[in-house]
Design brief:
The protein is of the alpha/beta class. It contains 15 helices and 13 strands. Bound molecules: ligand GMT.
Length: 381
Amino acid sequence: MKIGFVCYPTFGGSGVVATELGKALAEKGHELHFITYSTPARMGSLKSNLFYHEVRVSDYPLFDYQPYELVLTSKMVEVTLAHDLDLLHVHYAIPHASAAVLARDILQAQGIRIPVVTTLHGTDITLLGREPAFEPVISHAINRSDAVTAVSESLRKDTLELFGVERAIQVVNNFICTQHFERAADEAFRKSIAPNGEPIITHISNFRPVKRVQDVLETFIRIRKAIPAKLLLVGDGPERSRIEKMAMDQGVGDDIICIGKIKNPVEPLLISDLFLLPSETESFGLAALEALAAGVPVVASDSGGIPEVVDHGKSGFLAPVGDVQQMAKYALQLLKNPEQMAKAKKMAKARASDFRIQKILPEYEGIYQRLMFAVQDETES
Ligand code: GMT
């Protein structure tokens, strides 16, 4: 099949999932066309059936706000016509799904039928979706897509509750490529973070308020009071400076290493002993899944889709949002008990394998095929 992919080309979970899915589809022989404003961060080298089309918005002096969505729509039309695409798969409701629905309508007026698959990722629903400024557009884009998927059952439920949605939403979970994690940890890197063999507790995020990075710090402070440990913070965002300052003020500055944004989380995860994800909400929690894939147990909040990923008492532990006392207790239970930790590490890998790409990719292919048959039926009747 020839498929157009639209996503945010950044390090965010939705962009990562879209890029890895596109790459895997291309490896299976499909022709993939990424349509976005810069090369997706996880793209790697281009291959013969993997293409990238840049959406470039000129700076028109007339506009205070440049109309990216319209330029994206025109680009989708252009690429569909030039490469005879069979389908558009867009990740994130706005502006990608709304632009795709308009592109599809423009093409339909020219006698070309191209189905639109929309994948909802979370913040497009749970954060932006609550804004009256976006709600009608998101509802329309969902209702008018030819197929809609959500990355967890929790997100599917939230979408049905929050929007005037009158259509089926299929859950297709996020996934990981397990082979990316099958390599040795970088011992020199580990030693540079924890010179005396201290356990390394890791958090990776975009440091937005929804991630509750302060709870990461407060959990760590409680752990640190009981045992020597290091906290490895990966990523960057609005809360980073405040958290770094708070760590200094609380006297744990020397035990915290903030390495900032990196392209791939595998290296820090491979040297980690425990992962913390105390988010206010997560539609799925791809970062937690990546930790499990590296054999790192997760202590997280029991909110949103996280319980669909981390099985409490096996691959990690879940506590109510904000309950840093309980999170520290669970963390110490693992860190102080090597046998239990070894078991949890094994179960983490086993749990991650339930979300291996080989299992999830056919679910997307099934959706594409169903839509292709429907289009064929429409044309024949
Ligand atoms: O919050 C983030 O980490 C970024 C955000 C995004 O839109 O890229 O992540 C969302 O999509 C990911 C991929 O489907 C999910 O794993 C994250 O849980 C989700 N974030 C939230 O729901 C807060």
